[in-house]
C-alpha cells in the first residue's frame, strides 16, 4: 500500500507543477483526496467511503481494482511489445472484441485513448471516401486533440487555433431542451417529456431535426462528405437521447452523400445501455466504424477503432503504427472486461430502477426538468422551473453536487450549460447502492429547496 502525501502538499504541487486546469476543475469546493478504490467504492485519505457513480467518467466499467486473477501473470511475462510482433494477448483480445460486433465490423485498430480513436476514424473516413467534410451534433464531445476538437461542439473545450478543418455541426435533436420533441420521441425506459401530438407512426420532431441536417447539407458542406459522428446517447453533452429514428434517417442521408457513419461508443459501449452491448444496436443501425475507449479496459489506458475490411483496405496503402496500441497488459485487462459476466444485465436492471425512481423525483421537484437515458448512462437535467426549462444556474448545481458528495456519493455534471447531473457508475452496482444514492440525492434536493424557496 502506498503512503499518501498530506493534502496541503498535494495541493501545493498541483498549483505549481500540474496543468493549471486541474485547479479549476477540482470539481468540488472541498476536493476529494482519493486513497483507494474497490469495485463501486472509493475511499479518501481520511478513510471516508464514497459510492462512485461517475467511475472516472464512465471509465471504470466493471469495478475499481477488480480482483481478477487471470491476467495477473502478464505483469511477470510481457509488459510491452508492439504489433510488429505476434503475441497471444493481442490476438486473443481482437478475436474476442470482434465477436461482440455485427458483420462487417471485424477489423480492429488499437489506440490509447478516445481522442486518438476518433482522430484515426476521421483520417480513415477521409481516405476511404476521398471526401473531407465531417458532421457532428452540437453539444457533443469527441475529444480534445486538434482534430477531434473540431468534432467536439462545446465552447468549454474549444481553443482559438486552426483546428478541426472541415468539421461542421448540426442541431442536436434534443427533445427536452430543443424546440421540438414529444413524449414518443425517444427510446427510454421512462417517457413523458411533454405531450406528443404526432400521428401514430410518424415523428414531427424527427422530421424537423432531419430538416436541420438537410440545411447543413445544403449550406455548409460540399455535396459529398466524409463522415458523420455521433454517440448513441450523449455523454459529456448530458445523456441526450435523440428521436427514435434520427440516427437511422441520418445514416441514410450521410451514405447517400458518400459519407461513412461512425458511432462513438466511448461511453455507451460494453453493455452500459443495458438493452444492448453496443449503443448503436438500440438505434437499429450498423455503423461503418465504431470508436471506443474509457471502459474498454476498466480504466487502463486503451482505445480502439473497429471498421469493415473495405474501409481498412483503403487505409492499408500507408503504414499506420501505434507504439502502445495493442500493449499486452492493456489487451489482457480488456479481455477480462469482456469476460466479466452480468454487467449488461446489471446495467439494465439497476439502470431501469434508477430511472424509474428518479422520474418519481422529477414529478416531486420543480427543479428536475428531465430524467433520461438507458441502463447506466443516465442524465438528470436540472431547470430553474418546469415551465421555462431554463438551465439551473451553475451555483445551484454546485450546491446540490457538493452536498451529494458530502453525503457520500460521487456523480458527474454535463450538458452545454453544466445543467445535467450524470450517473454512469461501474457496472457492478446493486439495487441497495441505487437506494443509497436516491436517498442522498433526495436529501440534497430537499436541503437546496429548504434553503432557497
Ligand atoms: N468520445 C467521447 C464520447 C468521450 O466522452 C470522450 C472523453 N470524455 C472522448 C471521446 C475522448 O476520450 P479521451 O479523453 O480518452 O481522449
UniProtKB/TrEMBL annotation:
Q: Which UniProt keywords apply?
A: Aminotransferase, Mitochondrion, Pyridoxal phosphate, Transferase, Transit peptide
Q: Which gene does this sequence derive from?
A: AGXT2
This enzyme's EC code(s): 2.6.1.18, 2.6.1.40, 2.6.1.44
The function of this protein is:
Multifunctional aminotransferase with a broad substrate specificity. Catalyzes the conversion of glyoxylate to glycine using alanine as the amino donor. Catalyzes metabolism of not L- but the D-isomer of D-beta-aminoisobutyric acid to generate 2-methyl-3-oxopropanoate and alanine. Catalyzes the transfer of the amino group from beta-alanine to pyruvate to yield L-alanine and 3-oxopropanoate. Can metabolize NG-monomethyl-L-arginine (NMMA), asymmetric NG,NG-dimethyl-L-arginine (ADMA) and symmetric NG,N'G-dimethyl-L-arginine (SDMA).
Give the family per the record.
Belongs to the class-III pyridoxal-phosphate-dependent aminotransferase family.
Matching Pfam families, A to Z? Aminotran_3 (PF00202)
Native source organism of the sequence: Oncorhynchus tshawytscha
InterPro entries from the UniProt entry = Aminotrans_3 (IPR005814), Aminotrans_3_PPA_site (IPR049704), PyrdxlP-dep_Trfase (IPR015424), PyrdxlP-dep_Trfase_major (IPR015421), PyrdxlP-dep_Trfase_small (IPR015422)
Its protein name is Alanine--glyoxylate aminotransferase 2, mitochondrial
Amino acid at each position: 500500500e502506498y503512503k499518501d502525501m498530506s493534502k496541503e502538499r498535494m495541493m501545493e504541487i498541483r498549483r505549481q507543477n500540474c496543468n493549471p486546469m486541474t485547479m479549476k476543475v477540482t470539481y468540488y469546493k472541498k476536493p476529494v483526496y482519493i486513497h483507494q478504490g474497490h469495485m463501486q467504492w472509493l475511499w479518501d485519505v481520511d478513510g471516508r467511503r464514497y459510492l462512485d457513480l461517475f467511475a472516472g467518467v464512465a471509465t471504470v466499467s466493471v469495478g475499481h481494482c477488480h480482483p481478477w486473477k487471470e491476467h495477473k501473470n502478464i505483469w511477470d511475462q510481457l509488459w510491452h511489445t508492439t504489433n510488429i510482433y505476434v503475441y497471444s494477448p493481442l490476438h486473443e483480445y481482437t478475436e474476442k472484441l470482434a465477436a461482440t460486433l455485427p458483420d462487417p465490423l471485424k477489423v480492429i485498430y488499437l489506440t490509447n485513448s478516445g481522442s486518438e480513436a476518433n482522430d484515426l476514424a476521421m483520417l480513415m473516413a477521409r481516405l476511404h471516401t476521398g471526401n473531407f467534410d465531417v458532421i457532428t451534433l452540437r453539444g457533443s464531445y469527441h475529444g480534445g486533440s486538434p482534430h477531434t476538437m473540431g468534432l467536439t461542439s462545446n465552447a468549454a473545450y474549444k481553443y482559438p487555433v486552426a483546428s478541426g478543418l472541415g468539421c461542421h455541426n448540426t442541431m442536436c435533436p434534443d427533445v427536452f431542451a430543443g424546440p421540438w420533441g414529444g413524449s414518443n420521441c425517444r427510446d427510454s425506459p421512462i417517457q413523458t417529456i411533454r405531450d406528443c401530438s404526432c400521428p401514430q407512426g410518424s415523428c414531427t420532431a424527427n422530421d424537423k431535426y432531419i430538416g436541420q441536417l438537410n440545411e447543413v447539407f445544403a449550406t455548409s458542406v460540399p455535396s459529398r462528405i466524409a463522415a458523420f459522428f455521433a454517440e448513441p446517447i450523449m455523454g459529456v453533452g448530458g445523456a441526450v437521447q435523440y428521436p427514435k429514428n434520427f440516427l437511422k434517417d441520418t445514416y441514410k442521408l450521410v451514405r447517400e452523400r458518400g459519407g461513412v457513419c461512425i458511432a462513438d461508443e466511448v461511453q455507451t459501449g460494453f453493455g452500459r445501455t443495458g438493452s444492448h452491448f453496443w449503443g448503436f444496436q438500440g438505434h437499429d443501425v450498423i455503423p461503418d466504424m465504431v470508436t471506443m475507449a474509457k471502459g474498454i479496459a476498466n480504466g487502463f489506458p486503451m482505445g480502439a477503432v473497429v471498421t469493415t475490411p473495405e474501409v481498412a483496405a483503403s487505409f492499408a496503402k500507408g503504414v499506420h503504427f501505434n507504439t502502445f496500441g495493442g500493449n499486452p497488459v492493456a489487451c489482457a485487462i480488456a479481455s477480462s472486461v469482456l469476460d466479466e459476466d452480468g454487467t449488461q444485465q446489471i446495467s439494465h436492471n439497476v439502470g431501469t430502477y434508477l430511472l424509474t425512481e428518479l422520474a418519481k423525483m422529477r414529478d416531486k421537484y420543480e427543479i428536475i426538468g428531465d430524467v433520461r437515458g438507458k441502463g447506466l448512462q443516465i442524465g438528470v437535467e436540472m431547470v430553474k422551473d418546469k415551465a421555462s426549462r431554463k438551465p439551473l444556474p451553475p451555483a445551484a448545481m454546485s450546491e446540490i453536487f457538493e452536498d451529494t458528495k458530502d453525503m457520500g456519493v460521487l456523480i458527474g455534471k454535463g450538458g452545454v450549460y453544466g445543467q445535467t447531473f450524470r450517473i454512469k457508475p461501474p457496472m457492478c452496482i446493486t439495487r441497495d447502492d441505487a437506494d443509497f444514492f436516491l436517498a442522498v440525492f433526495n436529501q440534497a434536493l430537499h436541503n437546496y429547496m429548504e434553503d432557497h424557496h
